[in-house]
């Protein structure tokens, strides 16, 4: 799944730091560029993910009222009421995003950031032809404590992430005293540009991590700040998830065995279908050859076989006419079969015969007798169909 991960500028800058990932995990390329010059993502599942810098987000723990959850029409009003006393700005100027999976009656994290700033940053990307699919925070609360040092030496930030939320402070010994005391096993991660400064202040070895890798890692998290006015429609979100999942299925390395298995299954089925079709064609051709052979053997005068059934009927009719033997379509055959089927004491008042069809009137059969006559005629190869006050008898068409 190809993704363009863009760090939104924390100030009024028009430059966007970006990272391009081919699979959602590794960094293929990274740089800084204006919105119009950002790389284009192509292919199934391609998306643009906007990352909100840590200094632009505040985190608040709230108790959600019962009956409110993600998608609830009164969620925004409920969050404004819960956070009104904790915000430095008016609630109308703040964008809120609720923790994934939060339910009414439970405690949940709420991310808050400047609404106008976020709108302008996202609109700039949209206008440059890089519409944002998701908005994620650079750092988010997590189960275990970690310390990060990010930025440049002159503006280095100390970021503490853990179950108590996210706190960012200017890197200094005094700031270190404000964060929870880290244990010896607490991960300490720093950008390469501030690694030496971080080890000096933290008095501990740090693990190096490129900023681009951190942004790609943030894009893998479960948070999506694109809620309320920034949320896509339900249909757009469903299509986005479908295209993303399909793109990962087509490209991700971990799905390679499944792709090979599916291709092998399709190939085996195609071979099986072709073999079955060949067998059926061979059987059908064998039957056709047998019919043609029967026709030419029985009637040697037939030299060219075009339609075996029609030609055989024609030859049989000619032979019957030459020998005087009646066929099942003749009046005598139809009348004899009817005479054997009708109940005693029943006699027709009128009969008509034309083109192999005998129409008999005046039998006055009740439903049970009519059914018995039809069954008896069918057993001898004839059909009987009531039509008004008449019974129409014909030879059964055998093909």
UniProtKB/TrEMBL annotation:
UniProt superkingdom: Bacteria
Cell membrane found in the keyword field: yes
Domain (GspL cytoplasmic actin-ATPase-like): residue spans on this chain: 5-144
Any one Gene Ontology cellular component term annotated for this protein: type II protein secretion system complex
Domain GspL periplasmic: 254-363
Ranges that cross the membrane: none
Compartments, as annotated in UniProt: Cell inner membrane
Family according to the record: Belongs to the GSP L family.
Name of the featured protein: General secretion pathway protein GspL
């Amino acid at each position: 799944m190809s993704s363009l991960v863009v760090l939104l500028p924390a100030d009024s800058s028009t430059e966007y730091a970006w990272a391009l990932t081919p699979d959602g995990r590794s960094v293929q390329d990274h740089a800084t560029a204006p919105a119009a010059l950002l790389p284009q993502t192509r292919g199934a599942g391609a998306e643009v993910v906007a990352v909100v810098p840590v200094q632009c987000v505040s985190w608040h723990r709230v108790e959600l009222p019962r009956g409110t959850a993600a998608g609830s029409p009164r969620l925004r009003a409920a969050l404004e009421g819960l956070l009104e006393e904790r915000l430095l700005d008016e609630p109308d100027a703040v964008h809120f995003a609720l923790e994934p999976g939060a339910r009414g009656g439970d405690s949940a994290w709420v991310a808050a950031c400047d609404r106008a700033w976020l709108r302008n940053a996202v609109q700039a990307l949209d206008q440059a032809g890089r519409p944002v699919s998701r908005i994620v925070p650079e750092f988010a609360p997590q189960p275990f404590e970690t310390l990060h040092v990010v930025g440049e030496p002159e503006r280095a930030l100390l970021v503490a992430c853990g179950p108590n939320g996210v706190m960012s402070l200017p890197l200094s010994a005094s700031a270190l005293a404000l964060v929870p005391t880290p244990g010896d096993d607490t991960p300490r991660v720093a950008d390469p540009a501030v690694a030496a400064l971080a080890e000096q202040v933290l008095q501990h070895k740090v693990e190096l991590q490129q900023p681009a890798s951190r942004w790609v890692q943030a894009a893998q998290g479960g948070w999506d700040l694109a809620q309320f006015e920034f949320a896509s429609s339900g249909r757009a979100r469903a299509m986005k998830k479908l295209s993303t999942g399909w793109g990962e299925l087509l490209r991700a390395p971990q799905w390679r065995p499944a792709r090979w298995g599916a291709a092998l299954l399709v190939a085996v089925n195609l071979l099986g279908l072709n073999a079955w079709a060949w067998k059926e064609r061979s059987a059908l051709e064998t039957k056709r050859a047998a019919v043609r052979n029967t026709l030419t053997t029985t009637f040697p005068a037939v030299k060219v076989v075009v339609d075996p059934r029609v030609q055989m009927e024609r030859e049989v009719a000619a032979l019957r006419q030459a020998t005087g033997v009646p066929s099942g379509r003749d009046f005598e055959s139809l009348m004899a079969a009817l005479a054997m089927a009708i109940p005693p004491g029943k006699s027709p008042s009128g009969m008509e015969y034309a083109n192999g069809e005998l129409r008999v009137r005046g039998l006055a059969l009740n439903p049970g007798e009519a059914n018995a006559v039809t069954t008896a005629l069918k057993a001898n190869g004839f059909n009987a169909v009531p039509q008004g006050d008449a019974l129409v008898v014909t030879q059964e068409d055998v093909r």
